[in-house]
B2 bradykinin receptor (Stegastes partitus), 352 residues
Amino acid sequence: MTPQPTSIPTLSTTLSNGDLNNTNGTHCPDLEAWEWLNASQPVYILIISVLGIVFNVFVLTVFCLHKKACTVAEIYLSNLAAADLLLVSCLPFWAVNIANDFHWPFGQFMCKIINVGIKMNVHCSIYFLVLVGIDRYVALVHTMSHGRMRRPKYAKLGCLLTWGFGFLLSVPTLIFREVRHFPEYGIDACFLHYPSHSVELLCDGMLIIFSFIIPIAIISFCTFKIILALKVQTIGRVNAEKTERKATTLVLVVLLAFVICWVPFHVVTAVDVLLRADVLGGCHLSAVIDICNQIFNYLALFNSVLNPILYVIVGKNFRKKVWEVFQQCSVTRRVTSDSTRSNLSSTLKTML
């Protein structure tokens, strides 16, 4: 029998609930679904990691190599790609952990660092999406003042504050993550060991509020205002209709992707909090929530693969940048090749 974590440590509470597999003092039997999950999760995590690394490295490479300075939106998008890259780069450690029957082979230091990296960048990526939404809101709704408000220095300051806020939300993970030996399973597991049940519920409540309720409220507000402004816009009607279709579609796709990837996880997390607070009970409900927590964890992580597609790659401006970077590289290679041939020709003439 292997321990069954209530969720992989990306966004999780504790490992002990699933390990003990106990609800209200009643022993809950193992489910066959755990065998399927434990077998399939490492493969899924590695796929997410590879795709996320490739897509986000591609995005960052284009932004870094392009000769023009990044705009405000591109500053947010590049930081979003960096956050997603750091997140997916940490996931292979958990693929190894699951494949190893939840025995953590990397030591306590890595247990803390990997989980802080994952947790921090989960928070940061969500709030970079918020910054993107606010940027579009200011650009499309407050068109008269966006020149003053949308400056690169303010964007960089916003990104710096977002990274700091993400680290602040990850402090409980840094403090309470540890490697502990479970003799009943014969493993050393990396898990969250809260000092009390109330602290555990408090941390889970903060996760729901700061990682979902506040971001989704801001994004929803920005989306509503943008759509409303586009509908009442009358100046330049032909261009406005074209802009309306593009902007509205992009904003709705952004919000839809966020909702699809994150709502199931946070709903399950809220139910799990109610279970551990003894508001709800039942062996079967606990088992189902544990399994759903695993599945929806990875649906949320898939957002890190979707981000570079939805926010950057499908954008017309980004495709233009890709083409310009490709041309830059082609010109550089051509100049280097011509220079090499010229030097070789000069050398041969000197020898002759």
The CA atoms of residues 122 and 245 lie 30 Å apart. Confidence is low (pLDDT under 50) at residues 1-27. The beta strands are 22-23, 26-27, 177-182, 187-192. The first helix runs from residue 16 to 20.
